[in-house]
Amino acid sequence: MTASTASPASPASPVVSRTLHGNVLVVGIDHPPVNALSVDVRRGLVEAIEAAQADPAVTAVLIVGAGRNFIAGADIREFGKPPLAPLLPTVCNRIEACPKLVVAAIHGAALGGGLEIALAAHYRLAVRGAKLGLPEVQLGLLPGAGGTQRTPRLIGAAAALDLMLSGRHARAEEALQLGLIDRLGATDDVLGEGLAYVRELLAAHAAVRPTRAASALSDAGVDAMRAAVEAARKETATRARGLFSPMKIIDAVEAAFTLPFDEGLALERRLFVECLESPQRAGLVHAFFAEREVAKAPETKAATPRAVATIGVVGGGTMGAGIAVAVLDAGLPVTMIERDDEALARGRAHVERVYDGLVAKGRIKTDAKAAALARFTGSTSYEALAQADLVIEAVFEDMAVKKAVFSELDRVCKRGAVLATNTSYLDIDEIAGATSRPADVIGLHFFSPANIMKLLEIVVPARVSADVVATAFELARQLRKVPVRAGACDGFIGNRLLAVYRTAADYLMEDGASPYQIDRAMREFGYPMGPYQVVDLAGGDIGWAARKRRAPTRDPRMRYVEIADRLCERGWFGQKTGRGFYRYEPGARTGAPDLEVEAIVEAERLRVGISARSFTDDEIVRRLMCAIINEAANVVREGIALRPLDVDITLIYGYGFPRYRGGPMKYADMLGLPTVLAELERLSQEDAFFWRPSPLIVKLVERGADFSSLNGTAS
Ligand code: CAA
Ligand code: NAI
Question: What region holds the 3-hydroxyacyl-CoA dehydrogenase NAD binding domain (predicted)?
Fold first, then answer.
């Protein structure tokens, strides 16, 4: 705070300061890192309003945030703990009821409870760069401090529902247009702008203006409100399938039009508490903290990343092209290497096609495509990579081919260049062994489509140096990926878990469930697609090749289901061949169940002497989840994943695991590890090899602990 007339008003709370600027009391929230509304802040705000009210020298109050934000919202770490007074609705009501003028001056984030504080003030100003939003839905909640009642009064039902159901951030300019704020600051000096605005309001004798006093129907008529609510209900039923809080948000917003303000607030509170107590809130809050925690691998603290300004990509197929686009989109130049001119032309065309798709969908403009492609060059000669700071290899999944590529990279790349492989399964230590510099070799496992999918597994082989790992994390940040540190093993974290998930599904299918029932059960659980739909999408031939490769080393105790092989032998590889587990009309992406597939499944059961049992959808989910949880426990025990939360983020961001369930480890904790262990022990009577309980689960249950005890975080 800079104004020269400022004087401290009283020794206020450590996180909420009070400074008199003439007759304006500036209430400053200073609670790093983001001014979340912890109990001390709430208390400090109420005390400040009371002090302002009692002090005849004060004619108006200006609320501002210190640091980079106004207020980022409620303190998410307090959710699920016993509530401490004053609660946020009380704070907001107290602000609104202040008989002296209260103005909020917003910079940075004014989100959730932060925006609700501002909405309770009598006037709002924001400077450019401010982000205003009600993102509670992303945490399984609804705005619980009057947001559902005040926002529609200010901006109408349709706009309020849009903000609350999407959770998106509106910029200051849009907020002004919507009516969420009253004034856009001319400069970014939030305190100066705020004080000037307050003085202007005082000079104009502006009235104290509680938002609650506004009629909910002043801007939108009854019909428009009903139409907005009905449209939101309809859309939410399909788009937010399985989610608990969106419908509650709509109910609360509707109440802004059908109930008096205080009754609307009371309903909002009831619905908020229902959301707060829902397992979805626990899952989503866990995901919020976990996705921040994964970026803090030990190497990021221990080492400084190497500078990366130019990037090479070897291979211009599905992954190479997608990776190139991800890098170009981050504003970095890319040099692509292919085997010959023809393959290079295909690689470039691949990259262009990705951009054409984005242009066609209206996601980018034509000139953005041109600007990105201007950073792209291609070559058939490895010498073109001589100056690259980091090279990502994405050639065929074949050890001999990869080794040949890495020995070339070793020959041409400058000292200190990071050499990365996008291999899905191969031994990265062996690949590193093809170079004279294994300390520079790392795995960067992208997911398809690589320019869209958020997950990046950073695979750390034995001999890589810490600064190379730190460089990979920094690259992930630049590419806006969610990085997860994984140890080297067959399939790393994600594909290793995918393998047991598929195996457990195959066992169920051979034992009696149809692939269509299994897919349906997993969709109902929250996956966007069932496991067999995914096989059809990715191409059955890929898994078939992997199964053939592993056949010689497969443990003889492992039960092997041949149904998928029977389909592949017929050339049924899924969507691309028009048939797989489903039948596809030409060009269609959704398939129809296929009686012939069911006959093949039945024939296989007969061949191996299994008479079909029936399974409920619930049993299907339990088995598939137990398979993932058990293997994930082994992945953590072996140190392949640093913590259970790294597994959770891998499956949420790379494999469609429903975020609202928090990931498989959080889900296991919510089920209760003793329940999971009992189920595994029961299943191991059917197949002691596959269902052997992980020693980590056994140990945790003995200790009365759960996976969260290994996360080292508050969630
Ligand atoms: N409560 C507690 N901690 C929070 C927090 C919150 N609301 N928001 C952020 N943090 C923490 C983060 O966990 C992180 O901690 P670590 O450094 O220990 O990892 C730190 O603050 C910085 O956060 P980011 O790394 O996300 O920083 P950023 O600058 O990239 O983004 C932000 C800042 C836009 C504010 C972003 O943190 C954000 O979106 N926060 C959440 C906002 C939100 O969802 N608010 C609604 C809360 S629910 C609510 O308010 C309900 C209600 O009405 C009662
Ligand atoms: P692809 O077959 O689509 O592309 C491979 C490309 O590499 C081809 O364009 C080929 O011409 C080129 N190539 C082969 N040898 C080369 C050489 N010596 N020098 C230069 N270019 C060469 O394969 P895809 O799907 O892109 O896979 C590439 C890698 O990415 C594999 O290791 C795969 O396991 C991995 N991966 C694949 C995923 C997927 O969903 N397709 C997901 C994650 C990783």
Answer: 310-487
